[in-house]
Structures
1.
Amino acid sequence: MKKIWMVILLIGVIKAATAQDSIYIFSYFKDNGQDGLHLAYSEDGYTWKELGNGRSYLQPTAGKDKLMRDPCVIRGADGLFHMVWTVSWNEKGVGYASSPDLLHWSSQQDIPVMEHEPGALNCWAPEITYDARNNAYMIYWATTIPGRFPAGDTSGDDKYNHRLYYVTTKNFKQFTPARVLYDQGFNVIDATIIPDNNRYVMFLKDETRKPPQKNIRIAVSNKLTKGYGKPSAPITGQYWAEGPTVLKRGKEWIVYFDKYTQGSYGAVRSEDNGKTWSDISDKLTMPKGLRHGTVVAITREEFDKLKD
């Protein structure tokens, strides 16, 4: 029994040390995404500094337009970093690459997730969430297919009336057919999903233009790929916000987002598992030109190699 308690104590110490040694990396793009992947780092989640004097860490080659917008990076169950991104404003695929260290990347893939839909206009802001229950990855994004969802066709920006779609994969070579992930009768983009105990929490952008919304909301499900209900009230304020990403540290959740009409970044924080939110935008320091990205934690050893 004493040995068992010693092992439990040791595991607790290791976890605490790992948490204390974590460095947070923000993957993002600049301008139109033409020069690829940019990285910033932070030790506290509030003050972010650009890495490599603002240089690109990966030049885009996937897709016809060869853009790298909205890069989403996660650490997979295999220990690799997996990244997806928007390759174009109007193509039917998403970009994918993997890396052991955020420096050396695999060949870039253009995954044709919506090629089977002749009327599809785009594939925007893809993200990945790991499904531990099924040992698989879910890639999800926003697409407009004119006429597919009449509700909301006249409330968006010009021709766009998005819904969220997804595929799953175990190896990033074979993918399930694309299916609808979220349709609650309104124009929606920029979803990011985090596991939280026995549920999944989706942060999304209500893209409704008429009447204006353009805010971040929450939907919850007990299954990763379905069951997300009506969205919450907005967790962001009286400004247009998009591209949410979440840093979850115990009971503290920080949701970062792009105040794109103001050319700045904002954040809200919850300390009760997402029940109430406070604006902490005035506490943030972000690199100039940072656009829609994601946060991932790495070890200090990994950070030292990345920095050097």
2.
Amino acid sequence: MTVILLRHGVSTSNTAHTLSGRTPGVELTERGREQARALAERLAPLPIEHIVVSPLLRCARTVAPLAEKLALDPVTEERLVEVDYGDWTGRKLSELVKEPLWSVVQRHASGAVFPGGEGLADVQYRAVAAIREHDRRFAEQHDRDALWVACTHGDVIKSVLADALGIHLDGFQRLMVEPASISVVRYTPAGPSVWRSNDTGTDLSALATTPEQRSREPAGPVPGGEVGPAPAEGGGPAAGGRTPDADNENAQRPDSL
């Protein structure tokens, strides 16, 4: 069985530079809606037979054009919801980078527990269990290999990829998962194999250097996935490096405006 792990498109949390987490009603930006339409055109020719989606609005919006083209009804899976960032939810990223927990998330993800929220190890456990259970169910239903889509969030996808690659969770920040990217995992009795990772097709704008990179400011992995710049309070890079939006980190990249 083969699953396409789809991250939702750019959301309004990008421009706000806040950690939206499970905040209800977070919409896609116009760029995000364009990405959703482009994904539908790109994926619709494939023999996709099922769509499973996080309960959050930005994921539902992302898969809607594809579901319409394929005449499929997406199935909501609560275990693919965004990380519960607890007390961090809704806060500005320029503030969060100053928290001691920020470096723990970067270097020791398996030990990171968000205050009032959940731990990243728990996120991986629920996400991997959900993906593998749906995959087994579809295998039993079709009695053959089938292709399906799971639309979810950056850290969720990274945790699933880390499991498929045999990488410890502490290393999952080495994986990049951009908005509207696809990653592909094939599950077999012998084990999983990763066929694609952070595939954005012909959109390579995230590879453009940022002002911080050109000035040799340090950058590092962060909650939610790929890095991307965001302004610090009072201007300039926050905490001595690039500050990403942990929900849709590429807010200031050309492809995310």
3.
Amino acid sequence: MSTPSDSPAPTVDQEALRLVAVRIATEAAEHLRGLPRPWESGGAAGSVATKSTPTDVVTASDTAVETLVRERLAALRPADAVVGEEHGGSAGVDPERVVWVVDPIDGTVNFLYGLPWYAISVAATRAGQTLAGAVVEPDSGRVWSAALGLGATCDGRPLAASGATDPALSLLGTGFAYDGTRRARQAGMVAALLPRVRDVRRTGSAALDLCAVAAGWTDGYLEHGCSWWDWAAAALVAREAGAVVRTPGVAGLAPPDDGLGADALLAAAPGVADALAELAREAGAASV
């Protein structure tokens, strides 16, 4: 497992893209804070729907936030494309065009129940590679951001992955799919990992799990089945903080053939990254 080191051709200003991502994600968080809260209204009729399964929810706030983000991007970056969780969109591997990848609320189930672990994720990509991104937590107000080759910050403070070197003493984040059959396989993998790491945490937001690795709050994170918008911004935050990051293939690009499973998402402190990847393989990651 390795961290990509090649930078894109210098045809865009990555720092400028980061500032746009921060601006829009921050505005979206403020907008979300002013919308009705599902946990206070008891999930009023019409405010909550489902997608792939009855447990895969989408709220009226998800669609409202994505609409706002798209409007702001159209105003600030009219030549760019947008791919979002709720309103869709498509983007091929175009080496010249910037594609914005948006998750209006990552951690919607947490948001639905009033738990604070949810975030807005906005990323600028090109040819499947993230150039810049921002993750904003509406509840805490934290702003995580990164630009390719320029580092990562939280509220302006530089981030650095942990110095962990022993996988047995590593704190590992994870998550579970909405499909019950796959969730059972994931549970089996986690059960195999538990005796071999310090402990496992599950927050319910892939973006915030990746940011936790970037901050050194956890030593690693492994999940299968996440979509591009879940990790497009936060994976760059983790990578720019020094973590080793392995993502699924996107925009027509093939995933790594490394025995972790085609849609595995793994981020870890550099001192334990290879060991945690091997533990995941031994725990059956490829068959999850």
